[in-house]
Specification:
Its EC number is 2.7.13.3. It catalyses: ATP + protein L-histidine = ADP + protein N-phospho-L-histidine. Keywords: ATP-binding, Coiled coil, Kinase, Membrane, Nucleotide-binding, Phosphoprotein, Transferase, Transmembrane, Transmembrane helix, Two-component regulatory system. This protein folds into 5 domains: about 1-190, no CATH class; about 200-310, 2-Layer Sandwich (Beta-Lactamase), CATH 3.30.450.20; about 330-430, 2-Layer Sandwich (Beta-Lactamase); about 505-625, no CATH class; about 640-794, Histidine kinase-like ATPase, C-terminal domain (Heat Shock Protein 90). About 55% of the residues lie in helices and about 15% in strands. The longest helix has about 40 residues, at about 475-510. The two termini are about 105 Å apart.
Length: about 800
């Protein structure tokens, strides 16, 4: 403990101020040298000097000055100690020079050393003071020598010559130090100005004294515009005066952590803290520093307020973008501009396309197979290079599960964190497309529900067009088949027209007398009990819901039975009411609704109910007839449409066959039972719709003729004929094809029909059409029937 205190007493003080620390080192260097010289002189001088030995007691001033200066420096008064040290040094030299001949003395020239030290430690003013003092001492020594008060040594050079020579040396030393220190001061000022402009300042920490030294530039950075020099304050004062809020603990923690690594020259600390300056402004300071030993730490502070605030704003903007990016309902992604690799995706991307984040990041849309066409992607890529963005480009993407998705694709070039990026947004418009298609379909349905007269006129126009089109053999055959159907089609249309006319008349009569009947029914219903009213409502609902049309023969048979029972109840219009009940599916009405058939006005109640039911059934008959007519017109339009050449289009084989069956229904319904066996999931095939309609027309009509329009027509559609093919099988239960002609049935102009009934080109054209589609046709025949098999590629 005593040794430690003694060591602390002897060692020079440490200063956190770099300038003061340099001054202390220079001062102590002077102290060590002069103390050593004084001690050496006191020991050596008596041994070598001539007798009588003169003792220069003035040299005892030097150790005294050293001790006094050390004590003052340890107490913190370094500058005062320096003044006393240099002055006593100068005084000792002055006394020695006076005793040894004034300006002739060797010690007189050593005043230059004092001037140099004064310049370095006390500054230019101190150097000038000791220069003038030394010059005055030379003049004084000449005066005292002339009076005989100091000895006059015998030198060949005159005393004025010695004075002038030494004075020139003294003034030159002062001038050199002045200009040297002026240049150094100018450099320091320029460096200081550069630091001020860069909002940079130095700071030094003394862990032993808990002091912080702030450079002039640091003080100006903190808002003290009047600062002229550095200042040293306690660490607690610095924290209280300049550091804002909870940043105090942060600074103490960072400094303590740095102190642990003072032995590591590569270690440095760096952190940002918030200050409150002398001008009341809040600033953000970037602090950097390290420890040079276990006591002294040094570093810099830089005002980065604007940069920090800008960074915080950028951070807030990035956080906002991140939230918008993550919460966007659209499939949003960020990708590299150069290689197209995904950098980030949001949940909307995963939901739409089915890929997880791990599956996407670091890969391209091409690698994932999202684009259906590489040419389309390259086209968009070139457009981005030219314009820098895409906006709502309609394109089809492929999801992970293979689904095709109609989307609007938008993208824009940007720079994120110094990297070229593309921000991509994909909007699913499948529902929008479906809605548009639905609107188109609704328009088509609306157009099909136009007046019957307009539909009939359209049909006549179509028939007239078909009769005029006879340019090719295929069309000739088709027109020949169509000619056979005209009468049947007219009949098919006249039937629903007749139903509509009759139903319309029924509805008209219903509304003509509805007011009178309602008044009659109201008077009767008021007197009904609750159970009878409930049965009345149930009767109406059941009759309106019944949709079957009972054959007249069955109606007549059942009417006789029910009529007799109604007569027993005293109903005068028993036959009409019985027919109405039977047609409405209410033949068990007496058993199901017994309460309604009790009372005097049974006939009024039942007749009112039957009128309401009949009006409802008439409305349904109109709907059914219009629907039937629309289907006939639609099928006939498809059948009569002809397109020569051009690219193949998707064809639904089942719909194509059903179109032919609709056209031939009038000729097939009376004696032929049609059995359709369509496998589920049969794909759409590429082909020429008009040509395939001709194939089914020829094969179905030939089968009907082979059975004399009485028998079973069976149509099978399913997979067959190898991979990626479908098989259409049309079979009948006719007598079969004779073996003698089986090899010739596909020959042109070969026919077994009577003259005028066939051209012999039907099956030849069918075969050519099938082969033109890349398929094949064959048949199986026996006395029990014939089946034609058509194989088409998918």
């Amino acid at each position: 403990m005593i040794l430690r205190r003694l060591k602390r007493l002897i060692y020079p003080p440490l200063s956190a101020d770099p300038e003061k620390d340099v001054s202390i080192k220079l001062l102590y260097g002077l102290m060590y040298v002069t103390f050593a010289v004084a001690v050496s002189y006191r020991i050596i001088h008596p041994l070598i000097s001539e007798k009588p030995k003169n003792v220069y007691y003035s040299f005892y001033l030097i150790p005294s000055a050293v001790i006094l200066c050390h004590l003052l420096a340890k107490s913190g008064r370094v500058k005062l100690g320096a003044h006393i040290m240099i002055f006593l040094q100068w005084l000792a030299l002055c006394i020695v020079s006076m005793r040894e001949g004034g300006v002739y003395a060797t010690s007189f020239s050593q005043f230059m050393i004092i001037i140099v030290l004064a310049s370095l430690i006390l500054g230019q003013v101190g150097a000038l003071f000791y220069t003038l003092l030394s010059f005055s001492t030379g003049l004084l020594s000449i005066y005292l020598k002339s009076k005989g008060m100091i000895p006059a040594p015998n030198y060949p050079v005159g005393e004025w010559s010695a004075f002038i020579g030494n004075s020139v040396g003294i003034f030159m030393a002062w001038i050199l130090m002045k200009f040297g220190l002026s240049g150094l001061s100018k450099i320091r000022e320029e460096l200081s100005r550069a630091q001020i402009d860069a909002k940079l300042g130095g700071i030094t920490l003394n862990l032993e004294t808990k002091e912080v030294t702030l450079s002039k530039e640091y003080r100006i950075m903190l808002g003290d515009k009047t600062a002229k020099e550095s200042t040293t304050i306690l660490m607690d004062q610095f924290l209280e005066r300049y550091v804002d809020g909870d940043n105090k603990e942060k600074i103490v923690s960072e400094l303590a952590e740095g102190a642990k690594h003072f032995n590591d020259p590569s270690y440095s600390t760096e952190f940002i803290f918030r200050t409150k300056g002398d001008d009341g402004k809040t600033r953000y300071i970037l602090a950097k520093g390290k420890y040079k030993d276990s006591v002294i730490g040094y570093g810099t502070g830089q005002d980065i307020t604007e940069k920090h605030i800008a960074g915080e704003e950028i951070k807030a903007s990035q956080e906002l973008f991140s939230k918008v990016f993550k919460l966007s309902p659209y499939a949003t992604s960020i990708s590299n501009y150069e290689d197209g690799k995904y950098v980030d995706i949001n949940d909307g991307f995963t939901e739409l396309l089915g890929y997880t984040r791990e599956e996407v990041i670091g890969r391209t849309s091409v690698e994932l197979g999202i684009w259906l066409s590489s040419d389309e992607r390259e086209h968009f890529k070139e457009k981005i290079k030219k314009d820098g963005f895409l906006y709502n480009e309609e394109v089809t993407f492929r999801a992970k599960d293979g689904r095709y998705i109609q989307v609007e694709f938008s993208t824009r070039f940007t720079v994120i964190d110094g990297e070229k990026r593309m921000i991509n947004m994909v909007k699913d418009i499948s529902s929008k497309k479906e809605a548009a298609e639905l609107r188109i379909l609704n328009n088509e349905i609306s157009s099909q529900n136009e007046l019957i007269a307009k539909q009939k006129a359209e049909l006549e126009s179509t028939l007239e067009y078909l009769q005029k089109t006879q340019n090719q053999l295929i069309l000739s055959e088709k027109m020949a088949s169509l000619g056979q159907l005209v009468a049947g089609i007219a009949h098919e249309i006249n039937n629903p027209i007749g139903v509509i006319r009759a139903a319309n008349e029924s509805v008209k009569n219903h509304f003509d007398r509805v007011l009178d009947r309602m008044q009659e029914a109201a008077s009767v219903l008021e007197n009904l009990g609750n159970e009878a009213k409930l049965e009345f409502q149930t009767l109406l609902k059941k009759g309106r819901a019944y949709q079957e049309i009972i054959p007249p023969k069955v109606v007549r048979a059942k009417t006789k039975i029910l009529e007799s029972r109604l007569k027993e109840l005293g109903i005068s219009e028993s036959r009409n009411i019985a027919e109405g009940l039977i047609e409405a599916g209410l033949e068990e009405a007496l058993e199901d609704f017994p309460k309604l058939f009790i009372g005097e006005k049974i006939q009024h109640i039942i007749q009112y109910a039957l009128d309401e039911i009949q009006a409802s059934r008439s409305s349904k008959l109109v709907d059914m007839s219009v629907d039937r007519t629309s289907k006939i017109v639609y099928a006939l339009k498809n059948f009569s449409h002809f397109s020569n050449g051009g690219p193949k289009a998707p064809v639904d084989i089942r719909e194509s066959i059903d179109t032919v069956l609709t056209i031939y229904q009038n000729q097939l319904k009376s004696g032929i039972e049609i059995i359709k066996e369509y496998e589920a999931g049969i794909p759409i095939v590429p082909g020429y719709s008009d040509d395939l309609l001709h194939v089914w027309t020829n094969l179905i009509y030939n089968a009907a003729q082979a059975m004399a329009f009485k028998g079973i027509l069976k149509i099978n559609v399913g997979a067959g004929g190898g991979k990626d093919h479908i098989c259409i099988k049309i079979s009948d239960n006719g007598p079969g094809i004779p073996e003698s002609i089986q090899e010739r049935i596909f020959e042109p102009f070969f026919t077994t029909k009577a003259p005028g009934e066939g051209s012999g080109l039907g099956l030849d054209i069918v075969k050519r059409i099938v082969e033109n589609h890349g398929g094949s046709i064959g048949f199986e025949t026996s006395p029990k029937g014939t089946a034609f098999l058509v194989i088409l590629p998918q």
